[in-house]
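[job 0417] fold request received: Probable allantoicase
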Amino acid sequence: MSGVPEWVHLPDLASRGVGGSVVWANDESFAERENLISRAEPVHRAGTFGHKGQVYDGWETRRRREPGDDAAVVRLGLPGVVRGVVVDTAFFTGNYPPFATVEATSAVGHPSPEELAGWEVVVPRSPLRGDRKHHFDVAVRRRFTHVRLIIHPDGGVARLRVHGEPVPDPGLLLPGAVDLAALENGAAVVGCSDMFYSSPNNLIAPGQAAVMGEGWETARRRDDGHDWVEVRLAGAGVVRLAELDTSHFKGNAPGWAAVRGHDARVAPDRWFDLLPRTRLQPDTRHRFRLDAAPEATHARLEVFPDGGMARLRLFGSLTDDGMSDLVRQYQVLTATSSS
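[job 0417] inference complete; emitting structure tokens
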């Protein structure tokens, strides 16, 4: 691999495979922005035409007839220190941008693209050529959450790779915590308002959703209500971190969500807030630290007013009673009868 920098062996922090998302682009007239972060290498089939023209496995904007540049913003699936960027113009020959700039910023929480600020240049305006990978070293050593690819003035880019080292937020790390809502840990869906497009069991399935159909999605509501899913937790426990993942849901993500809990051992009809009603972003893994949550045996995800969710994770610790119940159930179900 002569001439290829060592940092290409570091994780791609922007890849869809680790939860990255192209959250905004000013134009995608010829080819969709989401292609930029596909984990697969770009491919091309000559003579394949759709309603936008030749089908390209990349992001392509219209031909500009006025001054300006085109841009796309990527939320990193793994925030971290960026060591290098690859701008790949594979199969773009007469329609690649002659120059590109890459900027980056660090944001707290889950801002909308319009709320992002503090951009700094990590790859200065640099020349590009068609149908090749361009490797750019990044010297800035700080944690970033978003990058912005600016192409001058227009054209097509097949892939954007952002290689670096993930840097987690310590406030979202819980030593010894387990996912109390995980199917594999014994949780179960026990109620649901609507499952028109897909099963709510997908919400608590192992792994990340690879496509929209691997999540839970409701029909469009035409009333004043909202949709919900109720989960019996793996055992009685205290939830300390909630993850609400809208990955792949873009025009059909809920606008807001809340998580409520109750303790069926004490007051099964008394629900309390674990996560109050909170704004959500499309195609985003949201993580919320929960403080001073009461013990719960059940949780209910409420989405406002409707839409789709890829995964629900509720990380926390089992109580002594919760662990004892799990151990007792395990022993009963694995005991062998004596002859």
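[job 0417] notes: The chain has a mean pLDDT of 93. Residues 235 and 326 are 7 Å apart (CA to CA).
[job 0417] exit 0
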